[in-house]
Design a protein that fits this description.
Blueprint lengths: L5 H38 L1 E2 L2 E2 L4 H12 L9 H11 L3 H25 L3 H14 L9 H8 L1
Antiparallel strand pairs: 1-2
Helix pairs in contact: 1-4
Length: 149
């Protein structure tokens, strides 16, 4: 197996990282928006109302006690029940998608820390050499350090 030149390896790794990040962010956003109604139904915010004995029912009970017997309009329970009954509105969809995108990016970053490959280690060694003043190109030491480090 022939070794891949360093600059070609760097470019390939850079493209792979960008594609992976875009896929993680898009997947997180789409997944969060698609699963939000499922999650709302699972905790008890259904189209028929709040399910008896559910987590949503205990939230509603706590909100009613805190508000002297009624659930405040515009409160968390009311907003979630509205979303469970009618689906997510535009702003809520955007918010859920943003949270999902951030979660996808975070998981991508965490995966990069956990599953670091040998080529990443080689790139790290090259960067250390540059920072220590050892040029990657002996003919253009200062220029190569600026461009490649």
């Amino acid at each position: 197996m022939e070794a891949v030149p360093q600059e070609q390896r760097r470019k390939r790794n850079s493209v792979n990282r960008h594609v992976g990040t875009i896929a993680a962010v898009a997947g997180g956003a789409v997944g969060a928006v698609a699963l939000a109604p499922v999650a709302l139904g699972a905790v008890g915010f259904t189209s028929a109302g709040i399910a008896a004995g559910s987590y949503a029912a205990s939230m509603m009970s706590a909100a009613a006690v805190a508000n002297g017997g009624g659930v405040a309009a515009g409160g968390m329970v009311a907003v979630l029940q509205s979303a469970g009954a009618a689906g997510l509105l535009g702003a809520a969809t955007a918010a859920v998608g943003s949270v999902g995108a951030a979660a996808g990016a975070g998981l991508k970053w965490l995966g990069g820390l956990i599953f670091k490959d040998k080529e990443d280690d080689e790139d790290d060694e090259d960067k250390k050499k540059c920072r220590n003043g050892n040029s990657l190109n002996p003919f253009l030491p200062s220029l190569s350090n600026i461009l490649l480090c």
